[in-house]
Amino acid sequence: MEWNIITVTQPAYEYIYSIIKKNEKNNIGILINIKKSGCAGFKYTFELIYKNSNKNFFSEQKNKKIIIKKINFFIPLKICKIIEGTTIDIVQQGLNKQIKILNPKTQSTCGCGESFEMKL
Question: Which of 17, 43, 107, 114 has its CA 20 to 30 A from that of 35?
Answer without folding.
Answer: 17
